[in-house]
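It is worth pausing here to work through a concrete case rather than discussing structure prediction in the abstract. The textbook approach is simple: state the sequence, then state the predicted structure, then interpret. We follow exactly that order.
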Amino acid sequence: MAGGIPINIVSFSYSTLVPPLATAIRKVYPNVNILYDPTIDFEVQGDLRLLKAAFTNLISNAVEASLPRGEIKINGSQKRRGGRTFSIIEIYQSGLLTEDIADKLNQGIGFTTKPDGNATGAAASYNIITGPHNGSIRYESLGEQGGKVKIWF
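Step two, the predicted structure:
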């Protein structure tokens, strides 16, 4: 248990995580193009419920930063390092992500870019990835091309 929330690490398919979330978020934001390769699939180790919450937030934030019309691209892959297989998910956004904001988000503290934001979503996603999933999350400004968040777990 982390913070009183039961953790249930299981093996599941990447296709049960990203495509359904992208489809649901696409319905809320039909003017933003959300792209991913539907042929990519691999086994993921994690708590599906917590990862759905984290990735819903991460993808939604990227979409909201890319409004009114923009593009999100999600890439999934795996790499072996030090005897461990990591799942890697990268979320690219066309909306601006400044270096200053990326630096603040990389600290994992409560921080919002929204006038009515409560500064909990990005911090919760950070804690889900780095806590029970022993992973990392890194935001990167791509200048005028937008931004990227890379998640390893």
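Step three, interpretation. The beta strands are 10-13, 32-36, 43-46, 70-81, 84-93, 136-141, 147-152. The mean pLDDT is 91.
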